[in-house]
Amino acid sequence: MITGRSQKAGKPMAPEARTTRSDVGDLRRGTNLLNCPWLNKGTAFTNQERRDLGLHGLLPPHVENIGEQVIRAYRAFERKSDDLERHIYLRALQDTNEVLFYRLLLDHIDEMMPIVYTPVVALACEQFSQIYRRPRGLFISYPLRDSIPALLRNRPNAAVDVIVVTDGERILGIGDQGAGGLSIPIGKLALYSLIGGIRPERTLPIILDVGTNNSERLSDPEYLGWRHERITGQEYFDFVDRFVQAVKQEFPGACLQWEDFATPHARPILQRYRNELLTFNDDIQGTAAVTLGAVFAAVQVTGETLKDQQIVIFGAGSAGIGVADGLRAAMQRDGLSEEDSRSRFWIVDREGLLHSARQHLTPEQRVYAQLECRVAGWPRTFNGHVGLADVIGQCEATILIGLSTVGGAFTEPIVREMARKVQRPIIFPLSNPTANSEAIADDLIRWTDGRALVATGSPFVPVRYEGRTIPIAQCNNVLIFPAVGLGVVAAGASRVTDAMMLAAARALGDNSPALRDRSAALLPPLTDIRRVAAEIAIAVGLQAQRDGVAAEQTDEERRRRVMATQWSPVYPD
Ligand code: NAI
Fold first, then answer.
1. What is the 296 CA–ligand 1 centroid distance (Å)?
2. Whole-angstrom Cα distance, residue 197 to residue 208?
3. What are phi and psi of 455, to 5 degrees?
4. What are the tens digits of pLDDT across the range 184-227?
5. How far is the CA of 539 from the centre of ligand 1 (A)?
6. Residue 389: how many CA atoms within 13 Å on its side-chain side?
7. Going by CA atoms, what residue is nearest to atom 23 of ligand 1?
């Protein structure tokens, strides 16, 4: 098995120097070939191929082309009775014939992305043990902590460009799913391939199984994960460290993406490792970048600048603080001082506005604590908190972002009050799933007389208002992470810097359909997402070079490499 070559810390790595897939030997013939999902063409093997590769007799006689296969696969998909069954069907197809799986997804991207990933993947996590069929990815469980390098070497694919890892503790909106969390890296990597064009056989989903505190899972006789309560504290961080060191050794050039870790773990892990290897946390940095992209687009539509905005964020968890950090960095790049940029944020959590007299703020939250004297005379709720309505009443918020999980929190009086003071209020209820959305799109448009610029976390159908049809952008990380993956792989980058994420956000904003057509959505539709991903990847690569974490390339070379790296689901000859 060929593994990655060594790469000195911090030095960029030429794309050619990445690991290459080992010779697959007898995988290229007969039953082995049909069982290899990234080489299998199923009924599309021609008669000549069937003769040459020992496939005659193993396949039904009729030879199909991929178009016919897609039609047949789609009909089978349609015959499934519910979304979980559709998810299971697509996963089985993925494990059988990856080119066909991705072709089918591309042809029906609007319909199938929610089945492969959010929201249906949440069901797949919950029922992981019940629907488990075949292994995919790696289970790295705590009892095997002394053999992590050996577990990594047991992987099915030799070369790896992108790893997505979770510990299953904070899965989407449904909390601790233990080993069932593996469905998230599997689904996410499918999107890296579908959109970013990361070759499927060069991706690796991993679950760090450190137990679960989900009592339903622990008492379920069918649960397939390690039946133990979660490992915590130093033992947990030591385990993660063993994993990271093994990854560095085994895949020195791969991008390691952290996914759905609980807040108390997500940030320390990112901070500890972000300067050690090519790594990022999508919940923190991806969410920030996609939101920033939508904000950049919205602010351009209003004709204003980012540094003039007053930003209210409802929810001060990983996502809320991540978004604030991204926006603040962008404001500072636009020339605002550290102090001025901080003062433009009004962040509200369960105990109200973050302000300097509040106890128990994390260091990340304290950055945004408004001076208590600034809010001393403000009205408060019955328990002494400065609530969201109080903040909107007192400051001239131009942007209101919800990352709180509190469905309906943007009430009519709050939205009307904001819209009273601002011509084009920018309102993003981003919490998922739909039931947790801080407002529904239709209400926001009506309460603001059609003036609001809206992006949501969950999908909403276009809103009909006074004869207009207003499309609603979905602020989905999928607009960013596959593109960042493509950008770093194509550039051979060795780190993911903040400036690279900001460059991704700006490129996304620059590709907003609303800039060309004022009645279009703020963010690109899924049908245009691969093209936009390539543009974002080019911007990421350029920034990587500027930051000294990727080799020099001409603009033309960079574009050529991105296009060449972005794999498409086409059968090889
Ligand atoms: P978290 O649990 O880390 O943070 C939630 C925050 O909301 C906390 O600060 C909490 O104090 C606050 N909160 C909860 N109840 C509240 C209440 N009644 N009043 C005021 N504040 C309250 O969660 P995380 O990871 O930050 O995610 C939050 C939401 O954002 C989730 O619904 C998630 O689905 C969504 N999200 C959306 C993304 C997107 O792209 N649209 C990406 C990432 C997260």
1. 22
2. 26
3. -135, 145
4. 999 999 999 999 999 999 999 999 999 999 999 999 999 999 99
5. 29
6. 11
7. 317
